[in-house]
Amino acid sequence: MSDTGGGAKIVEVLLPVAVDQTYSYFAPPGLDLAPGDSVKVPLGARDAYGVVWEAAPAPAAIGNLKSVISRYDRPPLSQRMRDFLDWLARWTLTPRGMALRLATRAAEDAAPDAPRLLYRTTGKQPQRPTQTRARVLKTAEGGMTFAKKALMEAASCSGGVIDALVDEGALETVTAPPAPVAEPLDALFGAPRLEPRQAEAAEALREAVFARGYRPFLLEGVTGSGKTEVYFEAIAAALQNGGQALVMMPEIALTKQFLERFAARFGAPPAEWHSGVTPRRRARIWRAAAEGEVKVVVGARSALFLPFCDLRLIVVDEEHEGAYKQDEVVSYHARDMAVVRARIEQAAIVLASATPSIETRVNAASGRYVRLHLDARAGARPMPALDAIDMRVAGPDKHRWIAPRLAMAVGETVARGEQALLFLNRRGYAPLTLCRHCGHRFRCRNCDAWLVEHRFRRALVCHHCGHMERRPDACPECEAEDSLTACGPGVERLAEEAAMLFPDARTLVLSSDFPGGAERLRREIEEIASGAFDIVIGTQLVAKGHNFPYLTLVGVVDADLGLGSGDPRAAERTFQLLAQVTGRAGRGDKPGRALLQTFQPEHPVIRALLSGDAEAFYAQEIALRERAGLPPFGRLAALIVSAKESALAESHARALARAAQSLPPTPRYRVAALGGLPEENEILVLGPAEAPIALVRGRFRWRLLIKAPRSADLQGFLRDMLAAGPKERGGVRVQVDVDPQSF
Ligand code: ADP
Ligand code: ZN
């Protein structure tokens, strides 16, 4: 027992690990800790990093609590940020420590910036003048200071040359304050002339940002309608107020093109946040966001966890994108969580899309979101003309995937000096490889999936786990030589056909699995935009958000792909994807057109696309969801139970289902009897069944699907069910996915 005089506190510290609870520590009187502070605490035999979640005056008796070791020099996590993380953890059934980890991972080495070393000339001549040395001195002459890297680049010399000049006294170093993380932005720099419709939408957003407070908007407008210009005005409003703004984008949409456009509007680029940013820079942006030095961050979904100190606006661009759903470690939907964050921060939020998700459409229809609509392309550009190619008539011969009519259109486009895009959402050469002789098919040894032939890599690849094996010359089953046949097309095969049809065209194949990663993709996307290619062949990578001014023809090679998957969201997804990809055409000076190769031209999705009548499609889809009690009219959760042995996963899943059935009714939910139709507050537990992909990376997966009306407490039920169910043992893992995107 110790006497705790004035100032001593007990603090509850949350650690960024898979634990929900906080740990209590004693804060010695000299260390005045407040919620949000980053601290070093003893944990077993080691020291750990954590964040103070609560602090209270210490009672007289504090038992044998350990003491906080020290506080880090790091901006505190605000109350709002902590509320947001608590909320996210509750909603996704994630331990709070894991939610904290999302927010602090990037800060790991967020030490204050060190001063920089700059170089300048002294006026002294080097003892041994060489051409290179003279060039360096000439570059730096006149007392200008240079960072080492900048001087190396400007004088095209090595670092050694500069070091030698310092040694000889011809250059000297001076220290300068750390470079700012981002250049200052100017809200009035490149203000555009908006069209009346744009101006009206922009004004509504500006008003909302100025008013402060939670205000959600759907900014809907066909591809090329000028949505970006409109939400830029909302950003300008946030800047004029001295506040911060966050723009979220699917990672791949974050191109140099976008950054340049931003810079043209605000005088400097925004701070970027995505997987390509170095950890050191991330740490700096993290700190700068917390200290208010960075005003605008443009980033992928993880930017949502930056500790902004004065967030006035969140923009979620392409809000319908599946890429916003994160399924690793913590499973959350970044768009939905952005809305929650905006509510907690009392900020405006803009969900922008040409093809909003059904959820967002319903929220707009019910008045929860204000809908702003741009119904024509900016600059009086027409929408592309769409037409179907009925493949039942024009059926491809065995190894042709480009119908004659599409081939002709591509030929004409290229001849006019314009660009054509052939779109096929399938990586690799062929989705299936089989032996003509014995029918043997290549299956992944870890997963329940066929191997996909990738001819460029001369390999068979599993698209689920990445397993790769050499494509053999003979069938491993019957040993027949030359009997292996590729079935169906992938982009690589399409490229082969295009090369045959258009041998002189400059053709580029774009696929996410090619070596070179994000950097190469960015470069290639810029090249397409600059008109360096005649024909572009690509997967959905090229469909999203880009502006290709020379592109006037889009050929969708298999418009039906994805419609037959049995997933209730299949129609919505296909509609969105095809509207996006056909919308790439005609964004420059010349009008565009798109041809859809389809075996089912009267399918509602294809019809909606051809007629341009999105309203009819949405109305039908929304009615269907409502009847079936599917999101957003009802709620869903999936429990994936996995283990090295299928029987183990299955029995665990069955035990969970039994546990659910045994839960007594509560005022917040009741579990529906098996076989019955759910009533008010009734939760339906479906399954277990083998998951759609029953084997992934050597783990067998069984799935329970939970369907609940909006009135029921789904999270409460899930918690109770997991508590009542068996312990996870024998390598069994249970993964909770609230609001699953595919089911
Ligand atoms: P969206 O985001 O809706 O797809 P963008 O904002 O990218 O549309 O605009 C599409 C094209 O129209 C861009 O090239 C943009 O520069 C141009 N644009 C947008 N607003 C205007 C305007 N008011 N006047 C002329 N061109 C515009
Ligand atoms: Zn696999």
Overall CATH architecture of the largest domain: 3-Layer(aba) Sandwich
CATH topology of the largest domain: Rossmann fold
CATH class of the largest domain: Alpha Beta
Q: Whole-number average pLDDT?
A: 90
Helix content: 25-40%
Strand content: 15-25%
Name of the CATH homologous superfamily of the largest domain: P-loop containing nucleotide triphosphate hydrolases
Tally of strands? 33
Question: Between the first and last Cα atoms, what is the distance in angstroms?
Answer: 56 Å
* Outline type: globular
Low-confidence stretches: 1-5
Task: Using the CA coordinates, give the radius of gyration.
Answer: 29 Å
Return the structural class.
Answer: alpha/beta
Strand arrangement within the widest β-sheet reads: 11-12-10-13-16-9-17
Number of domains: 6
Distinct small molecules bound, one entry per kind: adenosine-5'-diphosphate, zinc ion
Tally of separate helices: 20
Characterize the largest beta sheet: strand count, sense, and whether it forms a barrel.
7 strands, parallel
